[in-house]
Amino acid sequence: MEGSGNHRRDIGKLGEDIACSLLMEMGHVILERNWRSGHLEIDIISFNHEGIHFVEVKSRKFSIQAPPQDNVGRIKQRRTVKAAASFLRTAKGLPYGSHECMFDVVAVTFEGGTFRTEWFPQAYIPVFV
To answer: What's the pTM value of the predicted model, to 2 decimals?
Structure first.
């Protein structure tokens, strides 16, 4: 079973690498990857002309399961919003506090030797902060 966890971790890391490349191609500057505050984590924090983006990356091999972005439920959204608020209180985050904050999802689906990416800008708007 240990190999299964490593495989999932490898798929996740590769998905995050692909998501970073996608965001940079769209003009984003990557500020942080896997930023942590206690038990809270944000996969990617980026910045572009629209504002600061807190990005959740969902990666998986092709299957008949639900699309990866469907796994960003209410609990994950709340945790990401809490982590974003923590980041904006740090020395690195303070300069971005007056910018628009967006919560995006990038889904990366692997099938065979290829992959497909989907970017969901402003996938959710926190109303429970």
So the answer is: 0.89
